[in-house]
Amino acid sequence: MLTILSITNLSLPLEDPVLKFLVVLIIILSAPLLLNKVKVPHLLGLIIAGAIVGPNGFNVLSRDSSIVVTGTTGLLYIMFLAGLEIDLAEFKKNKWKSITFGLYTFSIPFILGILSAHFLFNFPWLTSIVFASIFSSHTLISYPIVSKMGIAKTLPVNITVGGTMITDILALLVLAICVGITQGEVNTAFWTKLSVSMVIFSAVVLIGFPILGRWFFKKVSDNISQYIFVLVMIYLAALFAELAGVEAIIGAFFAGLALNRLIPHTSALMNRVEFVGNAIFIPFFLISVGMIIDFRVFFKDFKTIEIAVLMTIIAIAAKYLAAVATQKTFKLTKEQGGIIFGLSASHAAATLAIVMVGYNIIIGETDSGEPIRLLDESVLNGSILLILVSCTVASFVTQKNTQKLINAENENTITETNPEAENILLSVNHLNTVEPMTDLALLLKSKNNKENLFALNIINEEKQESSKKNADKILYTSQNIGASADVKIQTLTRYDADVISGVQNVIKENRITDLIIGVNPEKGFSPRFVYNLYSGYLNNISANVLVYHASQPVSTILKYFVVLPENAQSEPGFFHSILKVWNIARNSGSKIEFYGHENTIKVIESIRKKVNIDATFIIFNNWHEINKVFEKMKENDALILFMAKRGMVSYLPQMQNVPSFLNNYFKDKNYLLIFPYHEIENEADKNVRDIGNANDFVEIGEIVGRLFK
Hints:
The protein has 709 residues and is of the alpha/beta class. The protein has helices at 2-8, 17-35, 42-53, 65-85, 88-93, 95-119, 125-136, 143-148, 155-182, 188-219, 223-244, 248-259, 268-292, 302-329, 334-344, 349-360, 377-414, 431-444, 466-484, 499-509, 527-535, 574-588, 598-610, 626-631, 658-665, 683-689, 697-707; strands spanning 362-365, 371-373, 424-427, 453-459, 489-495, 514-518, 544-549, 559-563, 591-596, 615-619, 637-642, 670-675. Helix 7 (125-136) packs antiparallel against helix 16, helix 14 packs parallel to helix 17 and helix 23 (598-610) packs across helix 27 (697-707).
């Protein structure tokens, strides 16, 4: 009763933690539902809601430490996701585009800012330089839009994310130098300290974090512990960044890059990271940004209004010019240029950091004893309008151009050949192989395949009821892992006297394209397993057979060695099989090293020109010397071996020795044997079968490349 009475005695701002959190949750829930109907980005709605309920609005909520801490986590989360979701192969390929955009988006606003501050506002040169750094920086406020709509790995997003780091680092470096000048500390020691601290910080995060993360994910399989570890890495990198003299957001982005290859994009952990961030932390940050906005400051005096309006116009115009310059330089489409502008137009975190530092630096006193600040109150108030307007413009522009880009891609895809339906079957018999097999299926499946995965357990008709209980446990485990990654895995229990015939019937009934079989780590390739493989599973002619052995989590693999026999490209199932390797590379971020005959390598290289992955190619013609390939493998490397059944064009006699060889030398390694199917089912397979005799590999790349869409 006392608790009820205390809650009913309401006063503003709310102090009861239950009510405060309830109000925030209602805002997070209602903003997208209401604003999506009127085509307004929900990010903008959260910012406006924060302004309304915040201390400068109706004062429903105070911007206390709980809001600040959760909001700060949301900001770090945005930068972390930007680094985590980026396609490292594309990022590496387009690094010069990112550098160019970073220089454009820093220098154009910087120059315009200095000129306007000095000649329009009569600011001193030092103040003008700090003032200009406000315009150069930006925050990826609208990044959740491109992430949610599935274009986080596209070229304009890659360019913008990379350029954001460059311009923010340069802007904050300018600020640090100017602060040092006001304090008389810019000397040799200053530069030495800054350079050494940045090198140490970069090395610790980009080199040390992946080593630590790989060790942790190998040792700890608990889902909750893995997620908490990710949060610890975000804050630890942010702390190291601050110790190095740069903003925490730089550390969060570096943490995302460091863990990029350790958190596969289709994994359950990635799903948890994105879910919690988009549901709680990022909305809290946007609401906390809105709480800063105070509309009353714009009516204090004309100087505040003048500076606020000019700051907003110059900042947005400068970012637009930088985006257009990038678009023209690299001949991007109008939609791509619009996405670059939308992502880079918003000012929030870095802007506030620069303004607050400049505002708190006192460089003198007036005759009346009032402090003279490096950035005065009019700039502080003007930055509030800049944040509001720039976030509004960025949200609308990003959403509009993202939809246009998606529509354009869909129109192109409709006119091209669509890949055949993908149905993946996991034949699960042992509990200790269920998790690695399911993780592999999630890694190699196509992006849009959310339902066509099946987990099958065959129960011998002569066994007792205990077999049914064991089957239920095995299938539930697989289904639960899929659900954690937002993928529906359909469980199948079948009673059959013969396991092989049971699997074959399921393949026919469900038009299975890929059958995954797990090698029990405790038994390896036993004689019975080898017999069932060659005399049973491989007798099907319509499904790829993938034999998987796991000794460590798939997320901890650093590099895959892919070995292909001569004429592999002539097999009907080659394209479908190589697509699985591509999906592994793109979803995990792992490096791929291809070994194969010259003609096979040319085909794969032509595919990469259309769909890029981080890969190297080595001509390898003699399977008698395959041991030399294996000797190159290090810890955390895995093997993918393309195989063939006797009678197929790529079959080699040495393949008969592979099972015993793997038993003897690969007990502690992950490996995947791929047996491409050999039935020609559709026109796409007919085209691929003729690849080996084709002369124009560029044309092959165009044919196969569009199928990868």
